[in-house]
């Protein structure tokens, strides 16, 4: 039996989001001091878990059984599952203006600092933009690796890219669509955390359209380009020429 004090503590930090007969369990906020260029910025961190079948975890009055949820999760191999999270800065709920970034996980760029893409740069730069703005949230989407094809498939796509294919062609040759990402769960979490309008940090019109079609209150967009080099020149050109990204800069002038 789980200590009642533990159950009580966690109950205050767990929010259940019902979505099309399924549940999203959102845990947080948790204080997370972050080092940005040698300066400590205090963010609030949330993590969420999508549950396909949570039958028996809810009481007749609609509330959820925290103890039963904890017991179920502790017996599950969550390390084998992907969970996304969000970093919130400032008074995200009430601020009149807030920036958000829907950032797709990039194992090679975010962790290893790969120059084959601009993902690691965009991750850090978006966090800086949000903290400088004063309010915002960075959604870190764990099931978006390789535009939704997964890390192993992304590695195979990289091999094809080394043979001359661009990122779109490599994904298509492996039998995937160009972009398989889904934002539904992230938008449900966004709506739970904030109802006021937000400005989206993105160069991708598809991402902007996806959020607006799912009724996310996104009213504006700001660009995020940078860290351009010989290693990612073709990658960035493909984003503009094949994936339709907004052309907010002239790549040839950025060397």
Description of the molecule:
This protein has a single domain (4-253), classed as Rossmann fold, CATH 3.40.50.10990. Helix content is 34%, strand content 24%. The chain is built from 10 helices and 8 strands. The chain has helices at 4-11, 66-74, 107-111, 119-133, 145-148, 151-161, 167-173, 184-193, 205-213, 233-241; strands spanning 14-19, 22-36, 39-51, 84-89, 99-104, 136-141, 198-201, 218-222. A hairpin with a 2-residue loop joins strand 2 and strand 3 (39-51). Helix 6 (151-161) crosses helix 7 (167-173).
Give the tags.
8 strands; 8-stranded mixed β-sheet; Rossmann fold; 255 residues; 10 helices; disordered C terminus; alpha/beta
Put the structure in a nutshell.
This protein has helices at residues 4-11, 66-74, 107-111, 119-133, 145-148, 151-161, 167-173, 184-193, 205-213, 233-241; strands spanning 14-19, 22-36, 39-51, 84-89, 99-104, 136-141, 198-201, 218-222. With 255 residues, the protein is of the alpha/beta class.
């Amino acid at each position: 039996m789980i200590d009642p004090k533990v159950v009580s503590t966690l109950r205050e930090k767990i929010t259940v989001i019902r979505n099309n007969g399924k549940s999203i369990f959102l845990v947080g906020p948790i204080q997370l001091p972050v080092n940005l260029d040698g300066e400590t910025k205090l963010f609030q961190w949330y993590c969420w878990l999508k549950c396909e079948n949570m039958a028996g975890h809810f009481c007749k009055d609609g509330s959820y059984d925290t103890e039963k949820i904890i017991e179920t999760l502790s017996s599950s191999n969550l390390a084998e599952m992907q969970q996304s999270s969000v970093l919130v800065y400032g008074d995200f709920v009430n601020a009149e203006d807030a920036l958000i970034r829907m950032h797709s996980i990039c194992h090679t760029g975010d962790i290893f600092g790969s120059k084959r893409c601009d993902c690691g740069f965009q991750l850090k730069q978006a966090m800086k933009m949000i903290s400088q703005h004063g309010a915002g949230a960075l959604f870190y989407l764990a099931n978006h690796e390789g535009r939704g094809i997964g890390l192993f498939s992304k590695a195979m796509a990289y091999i094809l890219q080394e043979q001359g294919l661009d990122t779109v062609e490599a994904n298509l040759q492996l039998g995937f669509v160009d972009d398989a990402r889904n934002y539904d769960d992230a938008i449900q979490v966004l709506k739970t955390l904030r109802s006021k309008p937000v400005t989206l940090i993105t160069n991708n019109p598809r991402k902007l359209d996806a959020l607006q079609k799912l009724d996310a209150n996104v009213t504006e967009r700001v660009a995020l380009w940078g860290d351009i080099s010989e290693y990612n020149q073709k990658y960035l050109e493909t984003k503009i020429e094949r994936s339709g990204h907004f052309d907010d800069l002239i790549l040839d002038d950025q060397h």
